[in-house]
Amino acid sequence: MNQSDPRPEELSAHIADILRLIGEDPQREGLVKTPQRVAKAMRDLTRGYSQDPIAILQSARFREDYNQMVIVKDIPFYSLCEHHMLPFYGKAHVAYIPNGYITGLSKIARVVDAFSHRLQVQERMTTQIKACIREALNPLGVMVVIEAQHLCMQMRGVEKPGSITTTSDFCGAFSRLETRQEFLDLVMGRR
Q1: Do the beta carbons of residue 144 and residue 124 sit within 8 Å?
Q2: Do residues 79 and 118 touch, judged by C-beta distance below 8 A?
Q3: Strand 101-103 to strand 70-81: parallel, antiparallel, or no bridges (unpaired)?
Q4: Which are the catalytic amino acids?
Q5: 9 Cβ neighbours under 8 A, 6+ residues apart
Q6: Which positions ≥6 away from 69 have C-beta within 8 Å?
Q7: How far apart are CA 73 and CA 96, in angstroms?
Q8: If we measure between CA atoms, which residue out of 174, 130, 122, 163 comes closest to residue 146?
Q9: pLDDT in the model for residue 1
Q10: No. of H helices and E strands in the chain?
Q11: Is 184 exposed, middle or buried (0-12, 13-18, 19+ CB in 10 A)?
Q12: Among candidates 17, 103, 94, which has minimal Cα distance to 56?
């Protein structure tokens, strides 16, 4: 899906149709500008489709002989679940062990943003972040842990507010239990 031509008028017209289908009047005073506002919000919430996460990392790729764990933790994110188009949000914790190259720390957060600003499932997002860092930097290892609350589970269906879903994915040096444990201890503040 390419967001370079989001056709805001067409999206707004569809939102007006949805309002009519649920029994609302899109011409009612409080709703007159709602289709345009929702269209603008949707373009912003899905801007990740027009971003290249690998290019983001490689735009600040530097040769460095550092080969210890680099962790960026507590990266806040907001996404939309692809099943109900309701928000899920939380924190991403990302680590990699350089293999001759590092990247700007803000680029890790930008990669999380690029993948979270798409219709998503948490499991795929976790894997996509890991795979992107692996491809862009060829590190000795990558690990990603995401903790999130899903409004599709809290507002509807099972209605369990406050529940948190945790996903993880790793490769390379993080396949060793002691390396994963070091990451988890550092992220959870036990060291």
Answers
A1: no
A2: yes
A3: unpaired
A4: 81-84, 122, 150, 152
A5: none
A6: 95, 96, 97, 179, 182, 183, 186
A7: 12
A8: 122
A9: 45
A10: 7, 7
A11: middle
A12: 103
Question: What residue type is 114 in one-letter code?
Answer: A
**Distance from C-alpha of 24 to C-alpha of 73, rounded to nearest angstrom:** 43
Cα gap 183→144, rounded to integer Å: 10
Could you read off the pLDDT of 14-54 as tens digits, one per residue? 999 999 999 999 999 999 999 999 999 999 999 999 999 99
For residue 24 the two structure tokens come to 């609302």
Supply 118's token pair. 């798409």
Residue 122 to residue 144: CA distance in whole angstroms: 11
Q: Are strands 119-120 and 141-150 parallel, antiparallel or unpaired?
A: unpaired
Count other C-beta atoms under 10 Å from residue 114's C-beta. 23
Query: Considering the entire predicted model, what is its pTM?
Result: 0.93
Task: Determine the straight-line distance between the first and last CA of the chain, rounded to whole angstroms.
Answer: 43
| Contact by Cβ (8 Å): 73, 93 | yes
162, two tokens: 């406050």
